[in-house]
Design brief:
By secondary structure, this protein is an alpha/beta fold. It has a domain of 110 residues: Transcription Regulator spoIIAA (2-Layer Sandwich), CATH 3.30.750. It has 6 helices and 5 strands, in the order ββαβαβαβααα.
Length: 160
Amino acid sequence: MFSVDLSTLECDGYVVVALRGELDVADAARIAVALVTVAARQPRIVVNLADLEFLDSSGVAALARGRRHAWEAGGDLLLAAAQPRVLRVFAITHLIDGFSLYASVAEAADAAGRCHPAPAPAQKRVARMRWPRMAALRSARQIPGAEHGNPHKQAERAGA
């Protein structure tokens, strides 16, 4: 038996996916596949978390995967009615700002009815650090006062 149950209800222009129980590593892959399947059929998804008692980081990852597929299909995955202990996991994993959270299913459904495809989050580009070329370093050593860097070279020059 699974520790989390999933049920769906098709509405006018969106799907409500209700999760009940505990979503952890044992069920995360199954839930992710179910959300991907729902997103392929109807990309506007409201996930009702009112009866979800526990969520771990693998459960958050399953929801994130479902949201990515909903975005790719032109919709979004909205979360509704999360309990404080479930919200805490989103805060701990620093993903609370990555999801649209609503106090109730009705508020999320209203947003889903008028939602437009959310832009994919921009990936941060890491700036590359440019290191000076060795030739430039060698020429710097020939400049008076530039030999401060390596104490071994200073000892060799001093004749020690």
